[in-house]
Amino acid sequence: MAVRLFMWTTLQLLCAGLLATARDGVGERMQTSVAPCTSGPLGMESGAIPDDSITASSFYHEDYRPSKARLNVEKVGWIPRKKAGQWIQVDLSEYTAITGVIVQGYRTMQHVKSFSVKYSDTAMKGEWKSLVDEEGQVLELAGNTGSGQPVTVTFPSVIVARYIRLLPLTWSRSAPYALRLEVLGCRDAIVRLVDGDVDWSGRVEIYRNGSWGVVCDQDWDLLDATTVCRQLGFKLGAREAKTGSFFGKSGSLPAMMARVSCKGTESRLADCPFVCKTPDKCGRTREAGVICRPNTIRLVGGSNATNGRVEVRRSDIWGTVCDNDWDLTDASIVCRQLGFSEAVEAKAGAYFGPGRGPVHLDGLACDGSESDISDCPSLCWEETQCNHTRDAGVICRSN
Ligand SMILES: *[C@@H]1O[C@H](CO)[C@@H](O)[C@H](O)[C@H]1NC(C)=O
Ligand SMILES: *[C@@H]1O[C@H](CO)[C@@H](O)[C@H](O)[C@H]1NC(C)=O
Ligand SMILES: *[C@@H]1O[C@H](CO)[C@@H](O)[C@H](O)[C@H]1NC(C)=O
């Protein structure tokens, strides 16, 4: 069964809406959950993050020191030497689900055009991980373009860590370049699934007031499990509610919730009624778990969750859709499946960039009544002639 250590070494939360899959490492199980939060600014602008929590690898001058890197606050920002390999680091003081950042340059000229992200629980050497894509490649995120206005950068997967580092990769031609930022995310009532065989199942753990705890299984049912799965971004809800410490005991974690009574419509487990005075341990009752229904569709490469290249999961492999006969009716099935009202536009020709992996669907001919893209007629038996230059995309109406 699962190794507890994993929780700390490979925990990776994924963001609702913009889903990424866990990579199947050789002989290694990816511990994955998905992000829950109503993401908000963590305090670079408001000052909730104190000056001494902001450090950097280099700075020129007292006026440009790391703590000046607060969104909208200082005139210029943090100014590193114009040299690769530099970084700015924020200590969020506790375990935090980080969904993205807001970055800002100075005036029109001085800005960071792209950057990568590292994160850590300890900030110790050798204990930093990079934000990567599904293939394990370090992500290069687009930053500012020159307006001096803040740009929100949503990470494709939510990271859970105490420390975050931004590493500028490219910058405006006029030196010195400046960076100001806000970190987006949330701390409380995060849930995660631990010790499951796949990233959509596991023991339910919830984070509150600086520590993780478990949920006792008394009265634990599918409605409770559905709320957990939806909070984690599994739009299809739960397949099973597991009781009796099905995914093994957590060991030392305290019981934080008992007799949870969700309706299944809540956005967070913490919003469900439960017995407030919980025991220290689940005791005679056991710890609750869930098996969610894994997502089978997602949008990738768009500007936000409402648009992107359509990717579908078949036999656990994500692939794309060819734009043959791709139209608004097909696109609307995708949008509705993702919880949007309808499609505004069906995009062809890899409008959102070419995908990777197989082309799973070709020649879709939905009639508009389907609830799942895989229920639409398509050229099922033909080997597709399409490559990723013809990947289909959608722009959905955000309700
Ligand atoms: C939060 O944790 C701290 C220290 O662990 C404790 O002193 C405090 O009472 C806790 N607050 C709540 C609301 O549980
Ligand atoms: C998503 O991005 C599109 C275009 O980039 C924009 O028009 C739309 O308002 C955005 N929607 C949300 C919900 O941010
Ligand atoms: C994709 O297919 C087109 C023709 O269908 C071909 O011209 C093009 O070279 C292919 N591109 C790649 C990257 O294979």
Automatic annotation (TrEMBL):
Domain SRCR residue range list: 191-293, 297-397
Recorded superkingdom: Eukaryota
GO cellular component, one term: membrane
UniProt KW keywords: Disulfide bond, Glycoprotein, Receptor, Repeat, Signal
Domain F5/8 type C: 37-186
Keyword Ribosomal protein: no
One Pfam family this sequence matches: F5_F8_type_C
The protein's name in its UniProt record: Uncharacterized protein
Highest classification ranks of the organism: Eukaryota, Metazoa, Echinodermata, Eleutherozoa, Asterozoa
